[in-house]
Amino acid sequence: MNAPATPKRRITIRRPTADFAQDRGAPSFELGRKIAGVRVGIRHDGTWRSWQYVARVWAELLRRDGAIPVLLQTGERTGPEGEKTRADLEAWHGEIDCAVSGLGTCGSCTMWSVRDAIGVEAKGKPVAAAICEEFVGHARTTASFLGHPELKVLVLPYPLETLSEAELLPIAEEHYPKFLALIGAAR
Amino acid sequence: MSDALTSPTLEIDDDPEAFFELSLAEGWGDGAPLLPPTDERVEALLEATALAPSHVIGKLPPRHGAATVELVAINAAMAGVEPAAFPLVVAALEALVRPELNAIALTTTTSSVHPALIVNGPSRDKLRIDYGAGCLGGAAGRGSMTIGRAVSLCLRNVGGQRTGATSRSVFGQPARFGQCFAEWEERSPWPTLAERQGFTREQDVVTLHGSKGNFPVADTNNDDARDLAYMLAKCIAYPLSNYYLELTGDCGQIVVVINPMWAARFGKAFGRVESFQEYLREHAWQPIELWRPANQEVLRKKNRVDTRGRVYLVNRPEQLVPVVAGGLGSLHAMFLPSWCQSEMQSAAVHGATWTADLLDAALDEARALVRSDGADLILVEADAATARVVLRLDVGDETCATGACVMPGEALRPMIADVLARRLRGALEVRLIDPRVG
Predict the structure, then answer these.
(1) CB distance A12–B104 less than 8 Å?
(2) For all residues of chain B together, what is the average pLDDT?
(3) Residue of B nearest to A79 (CA)
(4) Do residues B303 and B247 lie in contact, with contact meaning Cβ atoms separated by under 8 Å?
(5) A1 pLDDT above the threshold of 60
(6) According to the model, what pLDDT value does residue B345 have?
(7) How confident is the model over A99-114, as pLDDT tens digits?
(8) Which homologous superfamily does the CATH classification assign to the domain defined by B356-433?
(9) For residue B74, which of B115, B39, B22 has the smallest C-alpha distance?
(10) Which of B39, B59, B47 is nearest to B107 (CA)?
(11) Which residues on neighbouring strands pair with residue B308, listed in sequence order?
């Protein structure tokens, strides 16, 4: 005859995870007018040549439509150079009416593109983060836990980096009106 | 069940495999078995620190979860940290949350980077933190294995770092399990890493470095220490280093782990560590022709090429950080390459009794309660052994001569006691001397 199974002793343990704050829903903004006369910030970090090329193309298209492009290259994030980057961003926020912040095509550059876009949104200005397809989920997660789940994300193909300028041009032209629509600007 | 702990509880079978399965299902761990964080284990760790369980060390990236001492202890208990080593885990997290370490970027990047912990001080042996043979993996000291792992678990469970979701690291690295080693101070010809950061040799100190991994080099051909250092410098300046992606060579550090035999040779050739660092920097460059045309174009655009056609790795000698450790085989060195956008951070370890620093930090928060009204709190007495603090209220300037604008002492005292109890462990007796009351 089998002996009755001894019930296992139970122990109490503590849950090791933080209680992450509910994602706050900071508002996003729309321009709600024509792009002509608007100062449009274009942020890049000097790392991705593809995005620098797209930025140049968009700057030309914005000028064609009567807008004023205001390009910003962000620099280092730590040390004295990091202080300069933060000061540059603060000054840029004051100069622009709306912006696009890119390029998200790696882990940290996506995070910084999103954070710098949120910096614009926190000033009550329309903005989109330009993110390659592969990193869109990462961008949305980051925006959510930074309290801006509604941050507008302009999705670009992935990878852009190996494309020639001839291949990038139609992508830049195709996504320019998408960017304007995303921030609520009319041509 | 402890009343002192506030984290949610779970009841499980007292079975190691059941807890292991649970940890895997909940995503709490790194794939290896963990110890169940029972109240007994957690409280034993908390006893080793002067900080209160509710004290928030900081917000851990990437999701900015609040790292209370209690949550850190729960994760340290799972990692198998022994109580004596817990203050070191706390100090590591104090360093980790400083903005200049840039942990938000470290935890989200596609890079393999992870905070490596380098320990200095008298407790290295007692805590079994490896600094001899196999110190970067394989030596299996309990301190080395569990302290680094506890920090990694905190990033996962308190910071919300999850591969593929909040972290996009392409490869990760073995050190993401946790990396912690010590300096073999007694075999270093120079001041220790901690001393070079302004600490004393009597202090236990942990330094965090955003390390991309372990980069091994070997040489048996050079008898001349300067020639050997020259070759090290050339290896450090490998052409696809992150430094050559950056706009400048200004940020971050590279840790150069030197075996004790080589350290002795370098010590004879370079009497001061600064001269060794300067020599390394002077030779840590590559000729622009080394790179392919596309790289050359970018480096030129970033003004990284000097008039002699050299591309220096870093701008300052102190960015190349020698640390003496490892076995006595006289042919190996190891680099912990930099991710660049992260500045090394060091923090002193505080034990189970209050130190002046901890008390000052707690008092600063308490003083904020009265300073906006022009008053202040003067420390009269603090005794960690009896957990007694005596403060005198200074009602301040002439505009508040009667003290009428500062809240009454009977209302203020419990608020001050709350602040101190939240930051400092122990049943605190707080006495407030209020000059407005005879």
Answers:
(1) no
(2) 94
(3) B251
(4) no
(5) no
(6) 97
(7) 999 999 999 999 999 9
(8) Fe-S cluster assembly (FSCA) (3.30.300.130)
(9) B39
(10) B59
(11) none
Residues of B with CB below 8 A from A14's CB? 5, 7-10, 37-39, 42, 70, 74
How far is CA A110 from its chain centroid?
A: 6
**Three-state SS across A74-132?**
CCCCCHHHHHHHHHHHHHHHHHCCEEEEEEECCHHHHHHHHHHHHHHHCCCCCEEEEEE
Structure tokens at A90: 């603060």
Query: CA-based diameter of chain A, in Å?
Result: 92
Domains of chain A with CATH codes:
33-186 (3.40.50.2300)
Q: Which two tokens stand for residue A165?
A: 């300028």
Do residues B355 and B203 make contact, with C-beta atoms less than 8 angstroms apart? no
B12-28 pLDDT, tens digit per residue, is 999 999 999 999 999 99
Q: Are A79 and A158 in contact (CB under 8 A)?
A: no
φ and ψ of A56, to 5 deg: -65, -45
Phi first, then psi, for residue B422 (nearest 5°) are: -70, -30
Task: Tell me the pLDDT tens digit for each residue of A50-109.
Answer: 999 999 999 999 999 999 999 999 998 888 888 999 999 999 999 999 999 999 999 999
Instruction: Identify whether A177 is preceded by a cis peptide bond (ω within 30 of 0).
Output: no
**Is residue A79 within 8 angstroms of chain B, CB to CB?**
yes
Give which of A45, A108, A145 to mutate to test B binding, by max B Cβ within 10 Å. Answer: A108
- Kindly state whether A14 is in contact with chain B, defined as any CB-CB distance less than 8 angstroms: yes
Tell me how close the Cα of B5 comes to any Cα of chain A, in angstroms.
9
Tokens of B212: 């991309």
Q: Which of A16, A20, A49 sits opposite B28 (nearest CB)?
A: A16
pLDDT tens per residue across span B386-395: 888 999 999 8
Cis peptide before A159 (omega within 30 of 0): yes
Domain segments of chain B: what residues?
A: 1-209+341-349, 214-336, 356-433
Q: Give yes or no for a contact between B430 and B413, defined as CB atoms under 8 angstroms apart.
A: yes
A16 at the B interface (CB within 8 A)? yes
